Amino acid sequence: MSQEDQEALAAQWAAQLEDEANAAEPAAPAADAAPAGAAGGTSGAALDEEALAAQWAESLAQDEEDKGPTSFGGAGAGLGGHPVDAHFQDMTEMARQPKDNKLKRELDFILDIPLDVSAELGRTRLLINELLQLGQGSVVELNKLAGEPLEVFVNGKLVARGEAVVINEKFGVRLTDIISPIKRVKQLG
Which of 35, 51, 81 is the last residue of a domain? Predict the structure, then answer.
């Protein structure tokens, strides 16, 4: 229900309550209010608000008893706020199926995506002049010390650290430290 509809309904109820209060016994609320005002020392305006609220609640309760439950556009309401029967699909069988199969199917889509993996021994910064002077046998000093772990990057993002090993005459990296998922997410930003 829109805000405008709610405000219109509230105004309609307020007018109806006012009409009922004028048509009903005007002395009864005043008689009830007098002892409370005398005992509690509250103002007449506060007592009028309390009496109006009590009348409103009583009127709403009576309307509900007379008309039965009513829907104002929420769940189960059709066109014009009239209740309609809702029909839902039985999802029991779907809920009983193992979720692993669905998850496996979803993961199968990403398992064939190629990723670039690189291991970094260290870094340095060279001037163009220094780069042009490099030749066979030149040594480039890196920022890492001997024995420090290599860094393993996947698509340019640090995911692990490890040590260099030789396997069948090829270099490899034995992973010694995997970067936590929280740190990996922070690297994305």
Answer: 81
Is 155 within the bounds of a domain? Answer: yes
Exposure string (b/e) for 43-80, b if CB count within 10 Å is 16 or more?
eeeebeeebeeebbeeeeeeeeeeeeeeeeeeeebeee
CATH number of the domain residue 164 falls in: 2.30.330.10
Per-residue pLDDT tens digits of the chain, which is 189 residues long: 566 777 777 788 788 878 877 776 554 444 444 444 444 444 566 677 778 888 878 877 777 776 655 444 455 555 555 666 777 777 776 666 666 666 667 777 788 889 999 999 999 999 999 999 999 999 999 999 988 999 999 988 899 999 999 999 999 999 999 999 888 888 776
Q: How many domains does the chain have?
A: 2
pTM for the model stands at 0.42
